[in-house]
Amino acid sequence: MKNNQRKLAAQLHRLPWKQVPVLHVQTGRGHGREERRLVQVVSVNGLLFPHAAQVLRIQRKRRRLGTKRWSTETVDAVTDLTADQAGAEEITTWARQHWTVENTVHWCRDVTFREDHCQVRTGNAPALLAAIRDLVRGALHAAGYANIATARRGHTDPQRTLALYRID
Asked: What pLDDT shows up at residue 102?
């Protein structure tokens, strides 16, 4: 949940987080930093988010290895799954996996393909262009390219591009 939904954000901030116990803790090291995630979950009813059943608060504490200063970031997430359907650990795992998609797909579409700058907005054209971008991204990935931006620059020659799609 982002703070661009002010009324919903205010509702979530007013929840009794100080009384909600930490239900799950994840720790990890990687990319030159140490991270701790403290997870609280509260069941809800009547939020400004349709069908909301639980709100998850994740407090991320990070520090660069070799330093003492920790930075803290708190995020809230809303789900329609009840406590019986998904617990704190399971929802936390899903929240982490979301960033895998965000970093591999959405970032590529937003930055490499400049999708947010596209001014095509009528009819089916936006969906069609998104599908074409995904096709190109997928083809380059399947061809073994880890860096899609570099791969795009390397496929400006029409013959090389046709060969990528096995079109002779």
From this structure: 64
Listed in sequence order, the residues at least 6 apart from 164 whose beta carbon sits closer than 8 Å to its beta carbon are 139, 140, 143, 155
Distance CA 165, CA 139 (A): 7
Who has greater pLDDT, 160 or 35? 35
Tokens of 98: 């979301």
DSSP-assigned letters across all residues of 47-62: -SSTT--EEEEEEEEE
Residues in the chain: 168
When comparing pLDDT for 40 and 116, which is higher? 40
pTM, to two decimals: 0.61
> Could you identify the residue written with the tokens 């009819």?
123
Cα gap 144→38, rounded to integer Å:
37
Return all residues near 133 (Cβ < 8 A) that are at least 6 apart: 109, 113, 115
Question: Could you report the per-residue pLDDT of 79-89, keeping only the tens digit for each?
Answer: 898 888 988 88
| Beta bridge partner(s), residue 55 | 42, 78
Instruction: Give the model's pLDDT for residue 16.
Output: 93
Half-sphere exposure of 71 (CA within 13 A, CB side): 6
Q: How far apart are CA 21 and CA 41, in angstroms?
A: 8
Q: How far apart are CA 53 and CA 82, in angstroms?
A: 5
